[in-house]
Amino acid sequence: MTTLILMLNLLDLRGVTDFTGRLPRPSVDEEGPVEVVRGILSEVQSRGDQALREFTSRFDGVELSDLRVSAEEMQSALLSLAPELRKALELARDRIADHHRSQLQEPVDHGGDGVHIRSYRTPVERAGCYVPGGRAAYPSTLLMTAVPALVAGVQEVVVCVPADKATGRVAAVTLAAAALAGVTEVYAIGGAQAIAAMAYGTESIAAVDVICGPGNKYVAIAKQQVATRVGVAAAFAGPSEVVVIADETVPATFAAIDVILQAEHGPDGLAWLITWEESVAESVTSEVERLTEASPRRAEIAATLAEGGYAVLVDSPEAALQVSNLVAPEHLELLCRDAEALVPLIKNAGAVFVGPWSPASVGDYVAGPSHVLPTFGTARFASALTVDDFLKQHHIISVDESAYDPGGIAGAVEALADAEGLTAHADSIRLRDAARASGEFGSITPESKKTKLMARPNVRSSLDLIAGYHSAQVDVEVRLNTNESPEPPPSGFVDALKESLDSLQWNRYPDREARALRDRIAQVESPLVSGGLSAENICVANGSNEILQSLCLAYGGPNRSVLTFEPTYALHQHIAQVCGTDVKHVERDSEFQLDLDQALAAIVEHRPSITFLCSPNNPTGMVESSSTVRAVLDAVESVDGLLVVDEAYGQFAAWSALGLIEEERSIVVTRTYSKTWSAAALRLGYLVAPTWVIEQLDKVLLPYHLDAVTQAAGLLALEYQSEMEQRVAGLVGERTRVSAALADLPVQQWPSEANFILFRPLGPAAAAASADTATGTATDTHTALAGNFGDLVWQGLVDRSVLVRNCSSWPRLSGCLRVTLGTAAENTKFLDALGDVLT
Ligand code: PMP
User: What is the pLDDT of residue 118?
Assistant: First the structure.
C-alpha cells in the first residue's frame, strides 16, 4: 500500500461489501451551536431591532444605523457593475428563471365517476432569502434563491445578507444582483439573527412565510429551530459537499480542482474523491496538494480537507455509487468511463454532474437549477430548492349529482363513515340522497363548469426582473432636489390658460399632430439652428422622458444596444432596458469628463443604435464641448447609430448641440418645459431632429398622445420667452453666488452649467479619502466613509428642512449631494443650513 502524504485522507474500502458505519462524516458539534442559536432566537424575538443591531455589532463587527439597504444604494450598485459581470449575472438570472418556469407545471384536472379533482398552487405572500456574506460575496446565491421565489409568484421577496466587515456595507455586487432580480427589500443582517428576524418579525422587518437559502451551521440550525413557525425546506442547506467519482479516463487535474472547488467555501464541508484505481487516488491527491498550494483560499480549503477531505478506494464503479448513496452528497460528479450508464444507480444526491466537461461550478452559477441543495445527508429525503418551496398546493374537489347514483362513489363514503362510527359524515351523504329522492330541491347541481384556473402570466424577461424608477420625496420647506424651476410661471400665464380653456372643444380629440405647438417651438429654437427649423423637425410629448422612451422604442429594442457615459441620468439606461435593449456603459474620467478615446472606441466596439449624451450632464452639471460632440457624432454615424443629446438643462449652458442639427446628420436634441419654462407640472418635452427621425417617431407615439390642455399651455408658455430668459439669467447668477459660497465651505464641487450643483461635503474621513483619491490610494473603506458622511450631511440638511438630492450611494459619487438652484432666499437657507451642518 502506498503511503500518501495527504491533503486528502485515504480511506481504503477495497474488499468491503457493507459500507454502513464505515464512512466518516465531519463531526458537527450540535449541542453547543444549538444552545447559542436558541439564545439568539429568543433575544431577537423579544427585543427586535435592538437585538439585531447588537448581534450584528458583536458577530459581524458592523454598527448598523439602517437595517434596510436604501433604494439609492441598490440602484448605484447596479450602475457601478462592470459590464462583463452584469452580462454574466443577467445570463444566470435568465437561465435560472427559465428553468424554474419549467417547474411551474400546468394545474392537474382530472375526474370521472362524478368526482372532479383539480389541483392548483398559490405562492406564499412573503419569502425571505438568506444570502451568506461573511467569507465572500455571493450574488449567485441571491439569484438562486430570489429568482425561483419570484418565478413562483411570491409578491414580497426579501433578502438578508450580512454586511462586509471592512466596509460596513453589503457587497455592491450582491446588491446589484438583487436589483437585477427585481428585489427591493434587502437587509444588512446575517447569521442566526437574520433567520430570527425573518421568522418572528421585528419593528423594521416584517415576518415572512418561507425562509430559504444556505448558510453556515448556525444559520442552518436556526432555520431548523424556526421550522414550526415558517416554511423551511427539508433540505439542510449547510456547508458545501462534493463527491467526485473518477477514473483514469479523466485528467487528474479535473478531478482535483472539482474536489477543491466546493472545499474553498470554508470549513465543515465534505470533499471526497471515490475511485477504484489506486493510481487515480494518488494522482488526484497530489494534484489537490499542488492546486491548493497556489490557491488564495488555501485556508478555507485546508480547513475543509482536514476534517472532510477523503480519497476513497473501492473495488468497482458500482461500489463507488453505493458509497456515494450512503454519503448522499450535495454535489456528485461522475468523471469516469460510461458515466451516463452509472446515472440509474444514483439514489441520493442533490445535484449530479455527468462527464468530464461538467464541473459543479456550472451548476453553482448558470446552469439554471438552484444551487441551494441538501447537505449533511439530507439528500436522502430532500431536494434542491424549487418553486415548490414557495408554493402551496390546493386540491379542489367537486362532486356531480351522478356520484349519488346507486353504486356511485357516494355509497363508498357512507359505508366507510359508518364503519368508523362517524354518523355526521355518513349523514352528509344520506341527506343528499334523500333530497334527490324527494325531488324537493329540483336539480341543485350547478352546471358542471370548469372554474377558470388562475395562472399568472409572465412579463417579458427583460422586464420581470428590473425595478421601477423612483426618487424619494420628503416633506420640507426648501425643496432643492429635482431640478425644477423655483418659481411658478408668470402670473399672466395662468389667466391666459384659463381663457383658452373656455374655447377648448372638450368633446373632440386634440390635434393629433400638435401642429400649432410644434410650429411655435420650431420658431423659438430656429435661431440656434443654421438651416432653420419647421414643425417637421419637432416632436412633442409628455415630458422629455416620453421623447426618450419613444426614441428607444423606435431605434432600440431586442438585439440592439444603447451606450451611456456614466455617471449620467439613470433613466436613459432604464428606458432602454424596458424596451429590451442591451445597455453598454463608458465610465467618465475621475473629474467626470468624457474620455473621448474611450468613448469613440466603445462606439466602434458596441455599435450602439443609440448613444445618449447628456449635456449639461445630470448629475454632474458639466457640458460637452462642441468638438467632443462632433467627434462622438462622427463615430456614431460610422456605425449607423443615432446620437441623442439630452439638453434638459440646455438653456443654462453657454453652448448647445442644437447648432449641429442638419437633415443629413444623425443627431437629435431633447429639451423640456420642466426646468426653464417653470412648467414641470405640465409634463411637456420636445425633440429637435432631422425630419426622418420625426417620421419614425410618429409610428411609436400613441394617437392623440398629447392632450389639448398641454398643447394650449405649451403654446402660451412660449409667449413669456423674455421673462424666462431673465429667470435663466437670474438662476445663472445664483449659480455663481452659491458656487462661490460653497468654495468657502469644506466641500468639493464640480463646475456646473446647469441649474444645479454637484458637491461633496468633506468630513474628516471624507477629507482623507479625497486626499487619497488625489494621490490614487483611496481605499474602499474611505469611499464607504465618504458615502456615510454624505448621508449624514443630507440628513442634517433635511433636519433643517432643506432637501437636496442624495447621490452619496450612487456609483462614482460616494459622499456627493446635488443641490438645485432655488430662489435667492432658498439658496441662502440652503447655504446657511449647510454651513451649520459642516461646522
Ligand atoms: N433628462 C434629464 C437629464 C433630466 O434630468 C430630466 C429630469 N430629471 C429629464 C430628462 C426629464 O424631464 P421631463 O420632465 O421633461 O420628462
Answer: 79
- Residue 483 alpha carbon, nearest atom of ligand 1: 8
CA 756/CA 574 separation, integer angstroms: 22
Q: Which residues are catalytic?
A: 330-331
Phi, then psi, of 651 in degrees rounded to 5: -65, -20
CA quadruple 637, 640, 641, 642: dihedral positive or negative? Answer: positive
In short, whether 614's Cβ falls inside 6 Å of ligand 1 is yes
Indicate which residue's Cα is closest to atom 1 of ligand 1: 648
Atom 12 of ligand 1, nearest CA residue:
544
Find cell 447668477 and name the residue: 733
* pLDDT of 462: 64
What is the grid cell recorded at 652?
A: 443654462
Query: In the beta sheet, which residues pair with residue 587?
Result: 566
Instruction: Read off the C-alpha cell for 459.
Output: 412579463
pLDDT value at residue 451: 42
Task: Say if residues 370 and 352 touch (Cβ distance below 8 Å).
Answer: no
Residue 12 Cα to ligand 1 midpoint, Å, equals 71
Q: Which atom of ligand 1 is nearest to the CA of 548?
A: 10
By residue count, the chain amounts to 839
Is-contact 741 831, C-beta < 8 A?
A: yes
Using the atom order of ligand 1, give the atom closest to the CA of residue 482.
8
Distance CA 72, CA 808 (A): 9
pLDDT (0 to 100) of residue 444: 52
- Alpha carbons 647 and 250: distance in angstroms, whole number: 61
270 closest CA partner among 234, 227, 238, 294: 238
All three cell numbers of 26, joined, read 465531519
- Cα 546 off chain centre by: 24
Ligand 1 geometric centre to CA of 648 (Å):
6
- C-alpha span between 477 and 243 (Å, rounded): 64
- Buried-exposed string 8-34: b where 16+ CB fall within 10 A, e elsewhere: bbbbebeebeebeeeeeebebeeeebb
Please state the φ and ψ torsions of residue 539, each to the nearest 5 degrees.
-120, 135
Cα–Cα distance for residue pair 446/823, rounded to 1 Å = 71
Q: Cis peptide leading into 616, omega within 30 of 0?
A: yes
The response to whether residue 674 sits with its C-beta less than 6 Å from ligand 1 reads yes
pTM of the model: 0.55
Distance from Cα 695 to the centre of ligand 1, integer Å: 23
| Distance from C-alpha of 733 to C-alpha of 729, rounded to nearest angstrom | 6
Ligand 1 atom nearest residue 544's Cα: 15
- CA neighbours closer than 13 Å in the CB half-sphere of residue 692: 9
The bridge status of strand 756-761 relative to strand 747-749 is: antiparallel
pLDDT reported for residue 262 = 82
Task: Please report the pLDDT score of residue 21 as a whole number.
Answer: 87
Peptide bond into 317 cis (omega under 30): no
Report the distance separating Cα 738 and Cα 634, nearest Å: 37
Low-confidence ranges of the chain (pLDDT < 50): 1-6, 445-454, 766, 769, 771-784
CA 672 to centroid of ligand 1, rounded, Å? 7
For 140-283, where are the E strands, in sequence order?
156-160, 185-187, 210-212, 231-232, 241-246, 270-275
| Confidence at residue 656, expressed as pLDDT on a 0 to 100 scale | 96
Grid coordinates given for 450: 370548469
Res 110: pLDDT:
65
What separation in Å is there between the alpha carbon of 413 and the centre of ligand 1? 69
Supply φ then ψ for residue 297, to 5 degrees.
-105, 30
